[in-house]
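Input chain follows. Return structure tokens only.
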Amino acid sequence: MRLASQARFEPIKLLCLLGLAALTACNSLQFPTPALEPSATPVAIRRALVAATPTPSPTPTQFVPAHRGTAIAVPGGTLSPSNAGQMVLFAEHEQGFARQMAASANGDMIVVASSRYLHLYNSWDLQTLDIIPAADMTTSVTFSADGDLLACGYSNGAVQIFDTEKGAIIQESKSEKGQITALAFSPDRSMLAAASTDRIILLWQVPSGQLLRTYTGHISPPTALGFSEDGKTLFSWGSGDALKVWGVAAGGKSKRDFYTAKDKSGNFPVNGTFSGDGKLFAANFGKSIRVFQTSNGYTLRVLNVDNDPLRLVAFSDDGTLLAGLSQRQITIWSPSSGKIVATLNVPKDDPPIKQIAFQRNERLLALSDRLLSWQIPDAEASLARPHEFASNYTISSGINRYNIALTVELDGGMRIWNTDGTLQSVLRAGEGKMSCAAFSADMDMLAAGFWDGSVSLWRPGTGKRLKSLAESQQVLTTLSFSGNQQLLAGGTKDSLLIWQISDGSLIKTIPAKQPIQWVALSNNGKRLISRSAGEVHIWEVHTGKQIAQYKGYAAAYAANADIVAVATLKDMQWAVEIRQVADGKQIASIPAKGYALALSPDGSLLAIAGNEITLWDTHSGILRASLNTGKLYGNLSFSPDGRFLLLTSGDGTLQLWGVP
């Protein structure tokens, strides 16, 4: 394999932020820097990053290659209406949530399909072999028997076959009417079968892409496919349907149908899977598994479950082991004897497992939003976690004064990104799950609200807790510092809260009629802006009196300019109104719809995240730039010095934009 030339970073650093650009001043920030081997070679991400040309047109035209660890020029200046059209995507980190997983039959490789990439790992040490861009949301992945080919099916009906050694596409095909639900290579890898939501199975020749057969007759979309050992027979199954046996050399009619009978309650199987050699099919009824012989449809074994219903089942490649996953336990049987081989307990703190799979070396893999693996034990054991694949849900992000990116996650993790593109450290903010978080203007403090109603202040650079504030007694939904860092504001389902940072006391509670979704404090702490269901309110902090109210579905605040941007819907037309906070005067109205808004520190630029990022002159209302991000949702923020625009999505994606 290719391990000798691959990166030897720690596993969590293998999928990190691409070439994060920063000023020279960032070196003065005293964060611990991880030691890297001098010979480490970053894994290249095969993707061109789009950059806008310095022309009046907002359409990006120039392609700039970027790799993780690549040195990128210092930004040319502060973002402004005059140079917004020159913005370039400086760096990108796109680990995403894991969606699909497969292990090669030869035991060498694992593939994990994330939001937009295919991540190939060496199965023995979980080092990254390659990162390949995906054509769309991946719905199915499978290896050929020798591991040399990888097939990926997508939600748009496309199927791609990759050479795993080179990462190159060798074949592209498509099912025209539905997304791909299952894939299977023939044993000699000369054919690929693909099932889709249109209830059709297509059989292609590899690598020519010639369509050999089309199989029809399923009453529900097939979700499991398998070949016989000689490759002459194709098996398929769909929920509430028969197990069908097709002759590969024959036409589009099934040779035989074996009906997977209903259970005692009259329910069809919830899912099923074929063994790697195609000899067995396991139908999961929730409280039992019925194991069929595909040669004649006879029931070999019925395995009963005493505890929680099973959600997933998986065969080992040779069919000697069968695993069933319930909510908190995995049971492994020998199908031939019906005896339980092992029972594994799933940790309660982990997100739900969405897929399980065996490798030839009898390691069982489990996939949630992270890649989890362990060896099959001789007795009961809990899940071991040698490798973390993806980030948790990102709930807050920003760039500090040294232009180092920081992200905060739902589970209390804080990630700090090095200027060379590597993940510098992962720190913890408490043990509970966060409900919201906010950075101070200089990014030197982090306020964290937890599900138990507690609020605390942290130093992002060290992970040190500074102090705890008076508890809110309710779950906080949003937080915001005043510009002078003397006050902290928060919102709950029915109130606005103001804390004095110096002593942690709760100095003001303002009743609210609707749950608070967003808050912002003015620089001097005298004004508080809040957004609830379709409304934006401006309050006087000292008295708690409401001084203004606007219709609005999203909002952003520029403390230095004391202006607020409010997304409105009037007469079925979306617009963003730019208003002065002091007197409510409207400065501009921008005809645009967005899911997230951000104002530059000086208030001259408005960034809107929708199907793309658009940047607008807040004084003239003129569109200055349009950036294609490929992300519909996200959190937007400008760096304190106005040099960068950061877009983060809940799945851990970061995109960093600036002027070259």
